[in-house]
Specification:
Blueprint lengths: L22 E9 L3 E9 L3 E5 L2 E6 L9 E7 L2 E9 L8 E7 L2 E5 L10 H33 L22 E2 L15 E2 L25 H9 L7 H14 L20 H13 L4 H9 L12 H6 L12 E2 L2 H12 L17 H4 L14 H4 L15 H5 L18 H9 L1 H17 L7 H14 L5 H16 L5 H13 L2 H4 E2 L1
Antiparallel strand pairs: 1-6, 2-5, 2-7, 3-4, 3-6, 7-8, 9-10, 11-12
Helix pairs in contact: 3-4, 3-5, 7-12, 11-12, 12-13, 12-15, 13-14, 13-15, 14-15
């Protein structure tokens, strides 16, 4: 391992820049009883925990403390060889190792929590005794060298990155490169001037020099034309996308293509009016959202009509509201809300949801770079989930979450076997079903004779947001009783399985 000065991984790896795990600790832990033990490792730099010769936890420390790694190990009573390597060589302040097991909660693996001291201060005080005279001198020399390098100015020959450059009021001439050849002769007849697409029937741009005279004013002219009331596209495209957000499809179905190859608008006058309202409202999106949501079209029922269905099977005329399935994020969040586990906390860093072991096993380095957030953090809205393109949350991937590799102007709804399998057998659904059952037991009243029916009714009301019909309650009660008496499961488990069934109802997953 080498120090990359100024973060340059291509810098020359000199011997004096090499660092070693300078702080290994070897000890024997007393395991009081046989059972499963949970070890937690957190540090501000690289660290590794080895038990009986097997590395069980590694922490890269790239993001500092606050993202502990956890591992569960079955142990036998007796003495356990433990090795802890700490790869910190400079101003270390954070290394925490805890364990928990049968009969005791999490506690430091070291003697006391107070033993977590400032590493840099400890080295200054006891470095020679711990590292030896030569090791202490080597540490001091490297520390002094690092301080000198940090104070040095970056040499100019290292180069700078050009992000934006102004050419002043006189913009460079622009020519057409025929056949894409930038070295072709730049003839006067190939010269082009700023203009807008002719197909949009735009006027010749009037470009005025800004008062500062530091720019040509071309970008300002382009920005003004984009939001000009005379622009036939911007307001219509924006209004169409907002309509798509609420109805599942736009007035122009091809939301990313308003050209000749795209779909024509089903209601051109409506699109024009919405665009004009957006402009008149000073481009405030909230006003347009409210206008659409307050309309009779948005509030229409999704009930069928034989005559209308025969004339307009695709519902191009919006004679009813199209039934739609909840998006992947909406479905996951709704499950959390119904189970009572939902955490409404907003803002802050994202979190790492629990990924099933079989999904992790498909990675080149299973679990590498994936954190372990507390359960209460994992119950936050799905918009805060940490997204790794090669390791997607299964329930989100199954239900058509947006592709993280490309732009996603519209989501397509698919129906596939993995959706049903995940909803019936997934670890996430079973955990939420248990929490759902606990909530139902807490909130359901009634006497012992009517307890099952009361819990079934409460489960349906929570999940479907409506009053449960008597026949629905009767069927649900029969299911719970059959599970308890014919399948041999406990009454508590029977209720959990019924709650899992409720979460799999079409009415829960679809807006109808």
């Amino acid at each position: 391992t080498f120090i990359f000065y100024r973060g340059n991984p291509h810098a020359e790896q000199k011997p004096e820049h090499k660092v070693e795990p300078a702080f290994p600790a070897i000890l024997k832990a007393k395991v009081p009883a046989a059972g499963d033990y949970v070890f937690t490792l957190d540090s501000d730099d690289g660290s590794r925990l080895t038990l009986d010769g097997h590395a069980v936890l590694e922490h890269d420390g790239i993001h500092g403390e606050g993202s502990p790694k956890r591992a569960t190990m079955p142990l036998q009573a007796g003495r356990l060889p433990v090795r802890l390597d700490y790869f910190q060589g400079y101003q270390g302040k954070g290394l925490t190792v805890t364990w928990a097991g049968p009969g005791f909660a999490a506690r430091p693996l070291s003697a006391t929590a107070a033993a977590a001291v400032n590493l840099a201060e400890a080295i200054r005080r006891d470095g020679e005794r711990v590292l030896g005279a030569d090791g202490k001198r080597d540490y001091d020399a490297k520390l002094a060298h690092l301080e000198r390098v940090k104070k040095e100015q970056v040499p100019e020959e290292s180069g700078t990155a050009l992000v934006v450059s102004e050419h002043g009021p006189n913009a460079p001439e622009t020519f057409i490169f025929y056949r894409g050849n930038p070295h072709a002769e730049q003839k006067p007849e190939h010269k082009v001037e700023p203009a807008f697409p002719a197909i949009l029937k735009a006027k010749v741009p009037e470009i005025e020099l800004p008062r500062s005279r530091t720019s040509s004013g071309r970008r300002t002219a382009l920005a003004a034309w984009i939001v000009s009331p005379d622009n036939p596209l911007t307001a219509r495209v924006m209004a169409n996308r907002i309509w798509q957000h609420h109805f599942g499809r736009g007035i122009v179905r091809s939301t990313s293509n308003f050209g000749m190859m795209g779909d024509p608008p089903t209601h051109p006058e409506l699109l024009d009016w919405l665009a004009s309202e957006l402009i008149a409202g000073n481009w405030r999106l909230k006003s347009l959202h409210k206008l659409i949501l307050m309309s009779r079209t948005y509030q229409a029922t999704s009930a069928g009509n034989a005559t209308a269905l025969a004339k307009d099977p695709l519902n191009d005329s919006f004679w009813r509201y199209d039934m739609r399935r909840l998006t992947a994020e909406e479905l996951r969040d709704s499950i959390h809300v119904v189970s009572g586990a939902f955490n409404p906390k907003m803002y802050g860093p994202g979190y790492f949801p629990e990924i099933p072991r079989e999904v992790m096993a498909g990675q080149s380095q299973p679990g590498n770079g994936w954190g372990n957030s507390p359960p209460e953090e994992q119950a936050r809205r799905s918009v805060y989930i940490h997204v790794k393109r090669s390791l997607l949350t299964p329930i989100l991937a199954d239900f058509d979450m947006a592709d993280t590799d490309t732009g996603c102007p519209v989501r397509f709804v698919t129906t596939q076997p993995t959706q049903a399998l995940g909803m019936m057998n997934g670890d996430f659904l079973h955990k939420q079903a248990r929490a759902f059952a606990d909530r139902v037991r807490r909130e359901a009243g009634g006497s012992d004779g009517t307890q099952t029916a009361t819990m079934v009714r409460r489960a349906l009301e929570l999940a479907l947001a409506r009053t449960a019909a008597d026949d629905e309650v009767a069927r649900g009660t029969a299911v719970v009783d059959a599970l308890a008496h014919k399948q041999g499961v406990t009454p508590g488990r029977a209720l959990e399985l019924y709650c899992l069934l409720v979460l799999n109802l079409n009415e829960f997953a679809y807006l109808d």
